[in-house]
């Protein structure tokens, strides 16, 4: 029996029962899906609560508002937060026989999250590593993403199963955007993320320093009340691109709670401009060379 990942005759054990031979042996289906996605950006951090989901959601929204076709995949299986950030809670993806349609946020942005498949979002999900790995692969290959300019992935904190299997599923062309806060303790965790990405065989696209300074609602300026710049120093030390600083901004937290992504409503503020600077080099990425 040949290896099979998803032809019509696939068996639950991963074999193929087709008498005429498997029509989609091995990872052909996955490769087909990946071949339709130009750029894969995986947002991660060694540290929890630094703003990965906020950054991932706003990158995806900003790219889509720039006219790009974007998919946003939430692989945080224990605490999916993308449905709330984009006001998509309670949505259900349309299910086909062997495929799922992502949930549309707009014409240009489609979203997939385990949060859409759970009956109750307070349900605790206890899954062992191999199940998570299988789920992430399915979220890439069984979701009808179609032709995408960007697939943005929001990872849970750390360097565990989810970021590992995300990078392995997406392959060596996927690039990591690592998020940190300016504080030293976060920086140490982030240093680990940077070396993790290299060990898996992927590239770091760049580092984002979030919650850096305070965007003052009174004067509209950014005040550096705490240390800022730790992320920039780390980027220099690690030899990765520094993408920019996003200030602590009450409007970011508020728009997340309300489910109106910041980049849709506050693009012209100091924080919006900072986010746009981070996204600019992503928009400048050249199209991948297609080999026949
Ligand atoms: N620049 C910012 N200014 C103000 N609040 C922010 C900013 N970035 C993130 N937050 C807030 O910080 C909290 C944590 O953000 P978020 O959920 O994006 O972090 P995370 O790194 O994805 O967390 P987790 O590790 O749990 O997945 C949220 O309440 C969010 O609104
Ligand atoms: Mg998160
Ligand atoms: Zn001020």
TrEMBL record:
Homodimer. One of its GO terms (cellular component) is cytosol. This is Iron-sulfur cluster carrier protein. ATP binds at residues 46-53. Belongs to the Mrp/NBP35 ATP-binding proteins family. Keywords: ATP-binding, Hydrolase, Iron, Iron-sulfur, Metal-binding, Nucleotide-binding. SUPFAM superfamilies: P-loop containing nucleoside triphosphate hydrolases. GO terms for molecular function: ATP binding; ATP hydrolysis activity; ATP-dependent FeS chaperone activity; iron-sulfur cluster binding; metal ion binding. The lineage of its organism: Bacteria, Pseudomonadati, Thermodesulfobacteriota, Desulfovibrionia, Desulfovibrionales. Pfam families: ParA. Gene3D superfamilies: P-loop containing nucleotide triphosphate hydrolases. Binds and transfers iron-sulfur (Fe-S) clusters to target apoproteins. Can hydrolyze ATP. The keyword ATP-binding applies. GO terms for biological process: iron-sulfur cluster assembly. PROSITE patterns: MRP (PS01215).
């Amino acid at each position: 029996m040949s290896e099979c990942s998803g032809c019509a005759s696939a068996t639950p054990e991963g074999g193929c029962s087709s008498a005429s031979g498997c029509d989609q042996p091995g990872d052909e289906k996955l490769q087909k899906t990946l071949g339709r996605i130009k750029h894969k950006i995986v947002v991660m951090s060694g540290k929890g609560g630094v703003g990965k989901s906020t950054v991932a959601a706003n990158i995806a929204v900003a790219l889509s508002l720039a006219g790009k076709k974007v998919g946003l995949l939430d692989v945080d299986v224990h605490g999916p937060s993308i449905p709330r950030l984009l006001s998509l809670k309670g949505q259900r993806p349309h299910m086909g026989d062997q495929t799922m349609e992502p949930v549309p946020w707009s014409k240009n942005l489609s979203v997939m999250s385990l949060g859409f498949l759970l009956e109750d979002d307070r349900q605790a999900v206890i899954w062992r590593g191999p199940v998570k790995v299988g789920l992430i692969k399915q979220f890439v290959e069984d979701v009808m993403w179609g032709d995408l300019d960007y697939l943005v992935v929001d990872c849970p904190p750390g360097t565990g199963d989810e970021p590992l299997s995300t990078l392995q599923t997406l392959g060596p062309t996927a690039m990591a955007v690592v998020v940190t806060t300016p504080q030293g303790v976060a920086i140490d965790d982030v240093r680990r993320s940077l070396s993790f990405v290299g060990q898996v065989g992927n590239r770091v696209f760049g580092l984002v320093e979030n919650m850096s300074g305070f965007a003052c609602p009174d004067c509209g300026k950014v005040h550096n009340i705490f240390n800022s710049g730790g992320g920039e120093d780390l980027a220099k030390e690690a030899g990765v691109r520094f993408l920019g600083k996003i200030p602590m901004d009450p409007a970011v937290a508020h728009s997340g709670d309300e489910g109106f992504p910041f980049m849709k409503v506050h693009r012209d503020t100091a924080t919006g401009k900072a986010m746009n600077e981070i996204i600019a080099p992503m928009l400048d990425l050249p199209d991948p060379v297609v080999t026949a």
